[in-house]
Design goal:
CATH topology of one domain: Rossmann fold
Largest sheet: 8 strands, mixed
Radius of gyration: 51 Å
Number of helices: 11
Helix content: 10-25%
Strand order of the largest sheet: 6-7-8-3-9-10-12-11
Shape: extended
Distance between the termini: 183 Å
Number of strands: 12
Length: about 450
Amino acid sequence: MPDGGAPVLDVTGLKTVFRTRGGEVHAVNTVDFHLNAGELLGVVGESGSGKSVTMMSLIGLLPTPPAEVRAGRVMFDGRDLLKTDDETLRDIRGGQIGFVFQDPMTSLNPVFTVGFQIMEPLRRHMGMGKRAARVRAAELLDLVGIPDATRRLGDFPHQFSGGMRQRVMIAIALACDPKVLIADEPTTALDVTIQAQILELMKELRTKLGMGVIWITHDLGVIAGIADRVMVMYGGQVVEQAPVRELFANPRHPYTRALLTTVPSVRGERVKRLTVIEGQPPILSQQPGWCPFRDRCPHRMEVCDRLNPQRYPVAAGHDAACFLVDPGLSEDYRPRPRPAPQPAPQPQPLQAQPQPRPIRQQPDPQPQPQPRPVQQQPDPQPQPQPQPGQKPQPQPVQQQPRPQSQPHPVQQQPQPQPKPQPQVRPTSVSHSFTIGGDDG
């Protein structure tokens, strides 16, 4: 860890607001911290806690409006960056202060080659010629682990994957050997092998060049491995600062403890449900006079509803913004120790319940077939006797009704009436007889 000397970067009372139609959003509220030469400061906190906005406020990267740095002082190399003109600030950005942005997919210019974008700060801030800048750009690509670096200088950003674009962004930030490097989640899109290479590169450069590094991340494991000090942010405020070993061994702010308990462990018993921080982050459009963590804090006291705690010293280089560590707080306001949690009762094994016998359903009675009604045959009509010499008349054929297949009674068909037969006139038959014929 670097010795305590004059800090290369000193921030005091920084306040940043965003003016919106719904009012002012207090994104950064009275932030104080410092960074020594050769030191790596880890900044952790939930999304929306103000980490990135704080660092972008230091070097004027926020759009104005709607952003406005309302108060504070940022001392770098003997000058206040908040009072520096734009031309001088452009010379500092990229030259003496490097910045690795969070989103590599949109940070590179899609119409320029990767080599051109790496060579640009070399030619502007270091005065290199085109040939020397190209050689240095190839060295930087090789340094961050991109193979065939000389050939890849002529490629465009869309020809690189997300992880390789992130490495290009790191190469651009390291191009001019800056005094301060601000890295906003620089290893998010990298696999663990390249991530380990980048972390080793950071350790080497800050030792070799005396470069101070501000490392913004959600990964507490990375912070534990490379950071010298840790700054925990919540609701736009710094709630705890400590050396890395001290913070992990003795966290004093309830939010810091909650963050550490949410990290899943690879040892111990396997749990079915991961630990979470209950509740929601504070609404930054309001600026109340109470503790921003009170609604989610398990140690909430009456004084937390009235006052916003300042940072109280805990140990050497360790302070926390919580009334629990305030030595002047009356014992009446301190929370009473909670009883030890009782082990949850083990659920009794469920006994098999006897299955109820199924109820046999009686079949629905089938409808009985109705007897067919007997068709009444019509009385036979007397047939007229033929007259001598008359032909017998044909008898009309009576049609029998068709049997019905319906189960209900069949309606009787009307009896057919015999058709009137035409009267046949008797035909006269002439007979010729010869009586007593001629004998001769």
